[in-house]
Design goal:
alpha/beta; Rossmann fold; five-stranded parallel β-sheet; 11% strand
């Protein structure tokens, strides 16, 4: 937890960003790195400088993977994000991705850390070596930075990790479902924790009592790029969790002074097709049904449609986190067709908050997307709720506020180390 102490952030710090080469993971890290750079601090990356973000990474020192097998990681992520693996295969793929890669991460990162001497490491929540191994053996603060539109840390009010279920209305039912979900997660992750503790033992580190996700919540700072309002105002999280709002590189301020209802003549619909779909036909169906309404539309993803979001009336998406955050950050309501566990959580939140309409991917009859788009254009409350969330995102400061928290943590740790 960050101490309540005032520090002068004119002192420069160095932050090492460790992130998997996935666009939805890398982009928020780049936004945060640029916020730090603009304030005179140094950012260094450990990732693969892949084509979509190679130009942006050129502004920072970047160490590529050496011991981590990049091609195998990319293959695993394609299978997991595209819904191409069954339950048992998914379990083995997650193990290979999260745990089997830790020795390679550790071998890569130790010389990088010795070289650039970071004050803080900001890590992808699915890159485990920094918080499972390195923070203790090297005494460096490690900050998990989520890429999801909700906090995945477990708790009575949190999501049922690995399950797609609506949030129970009553508190007793929420606590009951949370206990059931925790038991299922314990069963699923028992072997993973044994292997994780075996890895820790190699570095003379004690075993962890819970899951790795729970353990990540013991970090001194845990950044979540959304707002408490979109995360059900959870009260069961560690004090280290900080909501910082959507973290994008903004070239234009989001426009929120749009009318409640939109006429078909002035409507503009954005169809999200930029991230893997387990059912790619959803995007094509959306385009066909929107065309039948005679509405102007455009296809792209959360990063290519940034300028278009300023004038958008509705977004149709599989509810992946980047597009959900980008749309709501601009006050644009969403037709959500979730097709993965992560997007399912976002879909329930969109429905419950009233900032869009959730459609079941398993009961998506002909014309349903068209009806949902028409309803959102006609009923102003969806845009009102989306604008409320946009205001909540803005209030939490985005990359600028996240950079301030990192500087405060780094200088606090520096002060404590000198005192010790």
């Amino acid at each position: 937890m960050i101490q309540n102490r005032s520090f002068n952030d004119t002192q420069s710090i160095t932050v090492l960003f460790t992130v998997w080469p996935v666009e939805s993971h890398v982009r928020p890290f780049l936004a945060l790195a640029n916020a730090l750079k603009s304030r005179g601090h140094r950012a260094v990356f450990y990732t693969e400088p892949s084509a979509p973000w190679r130009a942006e990474l050129a502004d920072f020192p970047c160490f590529p993977f050496r011991e981590v097998r990049t091609t195998r990681i990319e293959e695993i992520l394609r299978k997991l994000s595209g819904g191409m693996a069954g339950w048992m295969e998914s379990r083995m793929l997650w193990k290979e991705f999260l745990l089997d890669s830790i020795p390679g991460q550790t071998a890569d990162l130790r010389p990088i850390i010795a070289n650039c001497r970071p004050d803080v490491i900001v890590t992808d929540i699915t890159m485990w070596s920094p918080f499972l191994i390195l923070r203790e053996i090297l005494n460096i603060p490690v900050v998990p930075f989520a890429h999801t539109a909700h906090c995945i840390l477990p708790g009575p009010e949190g999501p049922l990790v690995g399950l797609s279920m609506p949030r129970p209305k009553s508190k007793p039912l929420r606590h009951l479902s949370s206990r059931i979900g925790a038991q299922l997660l314990e069963l699923f992750s028992r072997g993973l924790r044994r292997q994780a503790n075996a890895l820790r033992a190699q570095y003379s580190l004690p075993p962890i009592p819970g899951t790795m996700t729970e353990f990540s919540g013991t970090a001194p700072l845990y950044l979540v790029p959304t707002s408490p309002e979109f995360d059900y105002r959870r009260k069961d999280l560690p004090n280290s969790v900080r909501y910082v709002g959507a973290c994008f590189e903004r070239r234009h301020a989001p426009s929120r002074n749009t009318p409640q209802t939109v006429s078909p003549e002035s409507a503009r619909v954005l169809v999200d097709s930029g991230l893997p779909y387990a059912r790619p036909d959803f995007a094509e169906r959306a385009v066909a049904e929107i065309s039948a309404l005679g509405l102007a539309h455009e296809k792209g993803n959360a990063y290519t449609l940034t300028s278009s979001l300023r004038s958008a009336s509705v977004v149709v998406s599989n509810a992946n986190s980047p597009m959900v955050l980008a749309a709501l950050d601009h006050g644009v309501p969403i037709v959500a067709i979730p097709d993965s566990l992560e997007s399912a959580e976002n879909g329930w939140r969109i429905r419950d908050f009233g900032c869009g309409i959730r459609l079941s991917p398993n009961r998506l009859r002909e014309g349903r997307i068209r009806e949902a788009v028409s309803t959102i254009l006609r009923v102003g409350s969806y845009r009102d709720k989306a604008c409320e969330l946009a205001a909540s995102f803005s209030a939490h400061g985005g990359p600028v506020q996240a950079s301030k928290l990192l500087v405060e943590l780094a200088l606090s740790h520096r002060w404590q180390s000198k005192s010790a």
